Amino acid sequence: MSAVISARNLSKYYGNVLGLSEISLDIGTGITGLLGPNGAGKSTFMKLATGQLKPALGAVTVFGARPWNAPGLFRRIGFCPEPDAFYEDMTGLEFLTGLLRFYGFPKREIGDRAARALDIVELTKDKDRLIRGYSRGMRQRVKFAQAIAHDPELIILDEPLSGLDPLGKRKLIKLIKGYRDEGRTILVSSHVLPEIEALTSEVVLIHQGRVLAQGDVPYIRELIEGHPHQISVRSSDPRALAGRFIGDASISRMSFEPDGRTLVVETRNRDAFFDGLTAAVPESGLTVEEISSPDDNLQAVFEYLVGK
Amino acid sequence: MTMRGAIGQVFAFFFALGRKSGRARTFALLGLIPVALAVVVRIVLRGREGDIAAVFSEILMVFFLQIYIVVLSLFYGTSVTAEEVENRTLSYLLTRPVAKTAIVLGKYAAYAALMFAMTAIGLTASFFLLNTARLGDPALYVTFLKSLGVLGLGILAYTAFFAFLGTVLKRAIILGLVFGFGWETVIQYFPGSTQKFSIVHYLKSLLPYRPVTGGGGRGVALLLFRLEPTPPLLAAIALVVIAAVFLALACGIFRAKEFLPED
């Protein structure tokens, strides 16, 4: 089956700043997650795919056509941008009906589509309120509504879960999966791995404008889990605690913080270390005050993968 | 959807939005200043109908022609594309099945219609308040319509120019102010054909007033000082051409240009 979005050696520069570098990838039906830290190039890729930016080198096609200055393509594409920006003087209903007009739908159909989209995102009772009076979550939902109101085949969502509470996220994830089950193509970006994991099994890992990895979530997790983790443990006697782990093969390095109370451990097997810690603490009579993981974030993971 | 249909939909979207905006309320109020002045003049100059009528042509028309429509066109014209970039709403328009040209033309038309409505209200009220003695004179209505037409053409030409500026430059308002209140003010007093390098020259060439030469009467000295008018038909054509050229340039640039996020 041909790809819905296809990029070949796609590059984009902002002056001297690299946006994307020689990205080649194909995105087919279903949900594809674009995962990367802030500034990785996710939004740049989405803007290239939606014709808002021109490639510096290479090419991107959507449904076989280049999207730059191709307005006809957008009957089939819905885009939910990342910025929290709206025509604030409009109500939610006016915003949707106004944008739906651009598709040439008959007047009655515009009303029906807008009502349906607002119902899907549970904004029906707030449809006549000005957007400037909406909460962050409501604004995110109306932004999603304008992306799906015209029933596009391809839905591109730039950080759609941002600003939503946990219940809101669950509902939106369920919605997105519903669109996948209808046979649509969804490209969704996030910098939070669990969000992407909840949505899809197909992930493209992007960092500093390059694709670091592409595959299903277990594969990506394995890459991430394989990198050495740093764990800080503050306790009443860090040296005694260190002594407990001297012979542990999963520990690659141990050091002490200048405060004299914190042991920093580097391990490739977090689960084994925590099992050992759980056993060691009651046996030794030590008091553990705090456990933290300074590099338990996507940035550190990417730095590790880049360094590999 | 045809181009005409697309322009129509963009027009409807931005006319509805523009009508509700705080900016429209502010400028509409500004347009009522001449009306307030007209009321004061009627009270102060009670019975002196000739003087009252002259206030419109010598003072208020200056306000409308050289201040009001310039300010309106500057803020609305530069906003045609620039405000979508600044407010980060451009992606809503660029990801619709609407040509970029239709976006520029539709929004330009919407803003021009709004500005014309604001101008017409103030002009109509102040004009007739100051010319109540001549309400039975058909020539009065011809003068009124010509004055309205001049301001309408001015709005079209200035807005097109400022829309072009707004598409090319990030901080177009500053250059627009220099043009609107610097160049346009100074150049019209230059002798010879230099005057023709301004929009206001052609507008003044169309005004339904003429300077009174010789004795008697009161002329429109302030407005038409040093004017070497272009024939009215040519002046009207020039204004339409100015509007068309700058609109075409704005459309071409908007179509070709990438609008990068500030961050």
Percent of residues in helices of chain B: over 70%
Strand count, sense and barrel status of the largest sheet of chain B are: none
The proportion of residues in beta strands of chain A is: 25-35%
Radius of gyration of chain A: 24 Å
Number of strands of chain A: 13
Largest sheet of chain A: 6 strands, mixed
Work out the oligomeric state of the chains in this entry.
Answer: heterodimer
Number of helices of chain B: 11
Q: What is the global morphology of chain A?
A: elongated
What global shape of chain B is seen? globular
Lateral arrangement of strands in the main beta sheet of chain A? 5-6-7-3-8-9
How would you characterize this protein structure?
The complex is a heterodimer of chains A (308) and B (263). With 308 residues, chain A is α/β, with parallel strands linked by helices. Chain A is 35% helix and 28% strand. Chain A contains 10 helices and 13 strands. In chain A, strand 1 and strand 2 form a beta hairpin. Chain A is elongated, with a radius of gyration of 24 Å. With 263 residues, chain B is mainly α. Chain B is 75% helix and 0% strand. In chain B, helix 3 packs antiparallel against helix 4, helix 4 runs antiparallel to helix 8 and helix 9 runs antiparallel to helix 11. The longest helix of chain B is centred in the first third of the chain and has 38 residues. In chain B, 42% of the residues are buried. About 3% of the residues of chain B have low confidence. Chains A and B meet through strand 5 and helix 2 of A and helix 1 and helix 5 of B.
